[in-house]
Specification:
The chain has 489 residues and is of the alpha+beta class. Helix content is 33%, strand content 22%. A 5-stranded mixed sheet has the order 2-1-5-3-4. A 5-stranded antiparallel sheet has the order 10-11-16-12-13. It has a 4-stranded mixed sheet with strand order 6-7-9-8, with helices on one face. A hairpin with a 2-residue loop joins strand 10 and strand 11.
């Protein structure tokens, strides 16, 4: 017996019974409901033309998040509320301040991308509760929306202007009450076309269904798996969805660690971590994909995916993060770097899943930095991602941890370079020798993002940059290092 997909849309509860579990929210909107305001541009979560806002109850609190509908599967809407551009105008037909501001500021030309901008700005309007946003908030909000016509200036002006117009309220209490009535108290199983979509609610339910169906695909934010369907046309088989397991979203501090549940969104995880590492990780947080991707994708999913060009793993490895795995035999933990056995190969036993990532709190005497090199500042995959965590005793390196992404088949430590540095003076001669040793630790490949030679030179220069910022004698600030031509890229 299949449970229906139930969600709130346009003032009513919708029920879906016969759509394929991998049908996207965008396909459902355009093809089934004929709500064609939402557009498909890239079908991979990059351009933002498909942006919608999804409301959900998390620990009794209503959360409204802009996400990419082109890569979200329809069953993930169960128990939630969906808002598309058709919902933004007021009940009397007049424009919402977001729409009116875009009109007044000439923020639309060809118009194809405009619905996505409207939804991203509407999400920010709800969050700001009508208050004027800061420029950095506008830039972050629009980081996932691309426009080829306007040059962005009039859209940014509209983001300021919307807060100056007569405010429009949103009845969040009524929506929360409606969503509470849709909440299930047990695991839902949706089936269609010979494919099953399991949605457990507790860790025990997740453990049981994972043990019973060890070959089923684990789905969290769908920011990677969604592309397997939209770009690779893959058949996914049975799916176990993690998005309703509240225990996986918990973030807590204990015993010198920040324990981040694998289901916590990237946005929530980075917000919690950056409270302790503001200088070291604030830019990485800002540059990690776009806001809609961070609001859908999960921290544990990013780590479990294990991409060699993922941005979280190098710095997590450098500061000694631990991974907590849960399976039929209970829980076990390991250093994160031990989890990656080879390209797309992980130390996961049958029935196991990632339960949490334990991030060490800052330790006295540890100099920690992470750097990302990419062709664009916003929303781009790294060519090289570097992380360094050194314990310095005066001008001597007591211990060194170095990790890179984009330099090997997995996120990887520089074992030989680390061993060389231990016990040596942290001076220019040492750093020059260590730069050359990186060639013994890594043999990077050439691809569309960078050549092997570029990657190696960039990695070496980033180690030198770290030295400039941490040397005992006249350390340089990041801005000074950026201005030092030939040191970094």
């Amino acid at each position: 017996m299949s449970d229906p997909i139930r969600f709130h849309y346009q003032g009513a509860v919708r029920e879906v019974r016969d759509s394929a579990p991998t049908r996207t929210v965008l396909q459902y909107l355009r093809e089934d409901l004929h709500c064609t305001g939402t557009k498909e541009g890239c079908a991979e979560g990059d351009c933002g033309a498909c942006t919608v806002v999804v409301g959900s109850l998390e620990d009794g609190e209503l959360k409204m998040k802009a996400v990419n509908s082109c890569i979200q599967f329809l069953p993930t809407l169960d128990g939630k509320a969906l808002f598309s551009v058709e919902d933004v105008a007021q009940s009397d037909g007049s424009l919402h301040p977001v729409q009116q501001a875009l009109v007044e500021c000439h923020g639309s030309q060809c118009g194809f991308c405009t619905p996505g901008f409207v939804m991203s700005l509407w999400g920010m309007y709800l969050k700001q509760e009508g208050k004027k946003p800061a420029r950095c908030e506008i830039d972050d909000t629009l980081s996932g929306n691309l426009c080829r016509c306007t040059g962005y200036r009039p859209i940014i002006e509209a983001a300021y202007r919307m807060s100056e117009l007569p405010p429009v309220s949103f009845d969040s209490a009524a929506l929360a009450q409606q969503l509470a009535s849709l909440k299930r108290d047990r695991m839902a199983v949706y089936a269609a076309g010979g494919q099953r979509f399991f949605a457990p609610r507790t860790l025990d339910e997740l453990s049981a269904v994972r043990a019973e169906h060890p070959a089923a695909l684990l789905l969290a934010g769908s920011t990677d798996i969604g592309l397997w369907v939209t770009k690779q046309m893959r058949e996914l088989g049975d799916i176990i969805y993690l998005g309703h397991v509240d225990a996986l979203k918990a973030i807590a501090e204990a015993d010198g660690y920040i324990d981040i549940g694998a289901g916590a969104t990237l946005e929530d995880a980075y917000a919690a971590i950056c409270r302790h590492y503001p200088e070291q990780l604030k830019e990485m947080w800002q540059r990690f994909a776009s806001l809609p991707i961070r609001q859908a994708g999960t921290f544990g999913g990013n780590v479990a995916n294990g991409s060699p060009i993922g941005d979280s793993m190098p710095w997590l490895i450098a500061i000694g993060a631990q991974l907590v795995l849960r399976g039929p035999q209970g829980e076990r933990s390991m250093p994160l770097e031990d989890f990656y056995l080879g390209y797309q190969q992980k130390d996961l036993q049958a029935g196991e899943f990632v339960r949490a990532v334990r991030v060490p709190l800052p330790q006295e005497g540890i100099q920690f930095r992470t750097y990302k090199l990419a062709k664009r500042f916003d929303q781009d995959v790294s060519a090289v991602c570097a992380a360094f965590a050194f314990k310095l005793e005066g001008d001597v390196v007591a211990s060194a941890r170095i990790a890179f992404g984009g330099m090997a088949a997995t996120p990887k430590r520089a074992a030989q370079t680390e061993a060389f540095l231990a016990g040596r003076r942290w001076d220019e001669a040492t750093v020059k020798a260590a730069m050359q040793l990186l060639a013994d630790d890594y043999a990077p490949l050439s691809d569309m993002r960078a050549s092997s030679g570029y990657r190696m030179q960039a990695a070496q220069n980033l180690l030198r940059r770290f030295w400039f910022e941490t040397r005992l004698e006249q350390p340089l600030a990041s801005a000074q290092v950026n201005a030092f031509k030939g040191v970094t890229i």
